[in-house]
């Protein structure tokens, strides 16, 4: 039996509050660690994470390659390996490029500024009052779907988020599966009512013409929309909190290049996705450790993004850091399909915060949701002030 080298419980309250000291302790061992709680290897170095993420021949996202079964509802752009994922990944990326326009950029800046101005005055909680509704509004807007910020859909998003940790919290599995089914049914009705020029209907038609099953496309759309309740509000909160702690993060002339650099650094410094799992499908050696076929491998993306072997002064947020080859959106064939769209929204938020027309002062404890996969703030109490 393998021995755990470092105790790592992702849901331990202290780890939820600050996981980075534990990540550093595991990374200093210089090799993957066996974790007895999760029964998997844990990879924490930058190079190790990139190796596993990019090596789909030996490390599979598609568990069927290891002889395990997966329901059709679980098959999407993120749970398939090349070449099966090639068509949907390409067409989904093309769809997102089409909605990324200068007009959208202008609308986003106005919307973000207006929403912040509406919050000036008494103390607010910027998680439920700003970052979460902004993420829902954004994806509804660009995908041309009904509002995601409703009493019907919000519980689905919360259940999907909790189910991402079902390996640690088994009771979250069934509510998450039910939420996925409900959201899939809603998406089906939305697409059916769209005209052929709308982004999602156009995506479904294009992939069907390439021979891809409709269910696969709709599942992939579902994973995209689920970002409104997971990684997107998580990243928005990181940026807002960052400027609250240091209003002078970006000074002087803030051009598009500096905005992009700052977004990449926020993503590196506090990656929304803490990690992802792969199944070893062929005996291989990683950093001197033998990983056997059938063993699970947890890639701790957030640990890799704080690796001092790759990033100078990695625990410090440096908006001017460049080059910045972080892996917050993954690496290789399974890079996040929504990365471009997410960066677009985050860049506009950074632009508004850097303008300095509003200031944010934190007024109480900032807490995190008890989750392992996506690091999300639960509370961000603050006062928003409009500057003259």
Global morphology: globular
Strand content: 5-15%
Please give the share of residues in helix.
Answer: 40-55%
- Low-confidence spans: pLDDT under 50, at least 5 residues? none
Given helix and strand content, the structural type is alpha+beta
What is the makeup of the main sheet?
5 strands, mixed
Beta strand count: 12
Cα(first) to Cα(last) distance is 65 Å
What order do the strands of the largest sheet run in, or round the barrel if closed? 1-2-8-5-3
| Mean pLDDT level | 94
Report the radius of gyration as a whole number of Å: 21 Å
Brief synopsis:
With 388 residues, the protein is of the alpha+beta class. It has helices at residues 13-17, 20-27, 46-54, 86-99, 102-118, 126-143, 154-163, 173-192, 199-209, 214-226, 231-245, 256-269, 301-304, 339-355, and strands spanning 33-35, 40-43, 59-60, 124-125, 276-280, 284-286, 289-291, 296-299, 358-362, 367-368, 377-379, 381-386.
């Amino acid at each position: 039996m393998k021995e755990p080298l470092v105790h790592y419980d992702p849901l331990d309250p202290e780890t939820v509050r600050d996981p980075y000291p534990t990540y550093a302790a595991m990374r200093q061992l210089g090799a993957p660690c066996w974790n007895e709680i999760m029964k998997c290897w844990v990879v924490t170095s930058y190079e190790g994470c990139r190796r596993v993420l990019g090596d789909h021949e030996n490390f599979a996202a598609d568990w069927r390659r290891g002889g395990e079964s997966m329901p059709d509802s679980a098959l999407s752009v993120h749970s398939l390996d090349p070449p099966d994922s090639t068509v949907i990944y390409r067409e989904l990326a093309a769809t997102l490029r089409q909605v990324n326009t200068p007009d959208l950029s202008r609308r986003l800046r106005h919307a973000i500024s207006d929403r912040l101005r509406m919050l000036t005055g008494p103390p607010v909680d910027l998680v439920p009052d700003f970052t979460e509704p902004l993420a829902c509004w954004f994806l509804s807007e660009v995908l041309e779907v009904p509002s995601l910020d409703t009493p019907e859909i919000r519980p689905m998003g919360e259940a999907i988020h909790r189910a991402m940790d079902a390996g640690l919290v088994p009771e979250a599995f069934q509510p998450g599966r039910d939420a996925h089914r409900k959201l899939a049914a809603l998406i089906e009705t939305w697409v059916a009512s769209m005209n052929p020029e709308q982004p999602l209907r156009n995506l479904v038609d294009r992939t069907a013409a390439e021979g891809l099953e409709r269910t696969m496309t709709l599942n992939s759309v579902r994973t995209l929309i689920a970002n409104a309740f997971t990684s997107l509000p998580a990243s928005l909160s990181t940026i807002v909190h960052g400027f609250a702690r240091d209003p002078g993060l970006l000074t002087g002339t803030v051009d598009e290049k500096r905005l992009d650099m700052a977004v990449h650094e926020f993503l590196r410094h506090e990656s929304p996705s803490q990690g992802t799992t792969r199944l070893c499908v062929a005996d291989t050696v990683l950093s001197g450790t033998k990983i056997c076929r059938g063993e699970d491998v947890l890639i701790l993306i957030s640990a890799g993004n704080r690796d001092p072997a790759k990033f100078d002064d990695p625990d410090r947020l440096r908006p001017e850091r460049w080059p910045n080859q972080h892996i917050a959106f993954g690496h290789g064939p399974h890079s996040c399909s929504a990365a471009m769209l997410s960066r677009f929204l985050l860049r506009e938020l950074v632009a508004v915060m850097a303008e300095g027309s509003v200031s944010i002062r934190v007024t109480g404890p900032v807490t995190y949701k008890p989750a392992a996969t996506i690091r999300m703030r639960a509370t961000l109490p603050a006062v928003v002030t409009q500057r003259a």
